[in-house]
Amino acid sequence: MVLTVGFVLQSFAQDYPNHPITMVMPYAPGGPGDVITRVFAQEMQKTLGQQIVVDNTAGASGSIGTAKVARSKPDGYTLLMIHVSHATNAAMYKNLNYHPVDDFDPIGRATSGPMVIVTRSDFPVKDINEFIAYIKANQSKVSLAHAGVGSASHLCGLMMMNALNVKLNEIPYKGTAPALNDLMGGQVDVLCDQTSGTIPTVLGGKIRAIAAIGKSRLPSLPQVPAVAEAGVQGLDINISFGLYAPKGTPKPAIDKLISSLQKAVTEPEVIKRLESMGISAVSVDQAKPEALRTHLKNEMETLGSLLTKAGVKGN
Fold first, then answer.
1. Could you give the 3-state DSSP secondary structure of residue 101?
2. Same domain, yes or no, for 103 and 245?
3. N-to-C CA span, the chain
4. Based on the structure, what is the number of domains in the chain?
5. In what helix (H) or strand (E) does residue 81 lie, and over which residues does it extend?
6. pLDDT tens digits for 16-57?
7. Mean pLDDT throughout 235-248?
8. pLDDT at 159
């Protein structure tokens, strides 16, 4: 029996992959997660020797697409690229039909991305100090867009309101792209989101960057101060995308996927494309299952607690 299992695994390792792979991105096309997923799909298919098709299955803070992967056959042909929502959905949805840890095999982290507060171009503030003063004086009139409950922009906005002790008018959207479009169009006032989606529009003058989230300025926006420079405490969040397979995926497939991901994070073209969005590919040491497992656990504890205390529930 042992010899038979060993032979089957060896045969699988030699044969995998022998047809296209699907990489599920559980958010709408056009957003930062979609762009990141396609960057890695295009690069990893070179080393795996098979096409990787990106499947945008959006809805319910990413839980619909995530559940789709959890229920799929664990054969290495259906993967999940997801960010912080994989950690926060467990805190928001009482009857989530999958478990973020128990139902997935982690492959590795892919990116690390900072966040930035941006406003419509004609918002009546020019810097972080003016921004803080204005929203504290006009909080009932200021609209805060986000990409849906539990999204990165929702978490960032929630942390921002907590840190500044304000309550803005939250406007949820079905993804980052429509939220950003309305910000550019002047229909909403503020968005706190990943640089991967906001940097191009900031540099194009369509929206205004107010402050980088955290303690440090961004290399892509060196003139924009960090919130810490204005004395803001408790506002520090970084968004990482990670790659998962359904639980029980054969080790030979996982090993090949790890190797492909690790090669992708070192490729100059991948690094260049990510840097153009203001984010970074992780180190090879982070593109491993244990690193992603630890990262997920930490996010489930810290951000899950944030949502629970705020009484946030998924729709």
1. coil
2. yes
3. 48
4. 2
5. strand 78-82
6. 999 999 999 998 888 788 999 999 999 999 999 999 999 999
7. 95
8. 94
Sheet holding 169-172: strands in order across? Answer: 169-172, 143-146, 190-194, 115-120, 207-212
The closest alpha carbon to 225, from 126, 84, 94, belongs to 126
pLDDT reading at 3 higher than 60: no
Q: Assign residue 52 the CATH number of its domain.
A: 3.40.190.150
Q: Name the average pLDDT for the chain.
A: 92
Q: What does the pLDDT average to over 83-95?
A: 90
Last residue of a domain, one of 230, 262, 294: 230
Contact 179, 254 (CB under 8 A): no
Q: Is the pLDDT of residue 223 over 50?
A: yes
Helix (H, G, I), strand (E, B) or coil at 262: helix
- Let me know if residue 315 belongs to a domain: no
Q: Is position 20 within any domain?
A: yes
Pair 162, 262 in one domain: no
Give the integer Cα–Cα distance in Å for 153 and 146.
5
Residue 66 to residue 179: CA distance in whole angstroms = 22
Domain extent for 42: 2-113+239-310
- CATH code of the domain containing 132: 3.40.190.10
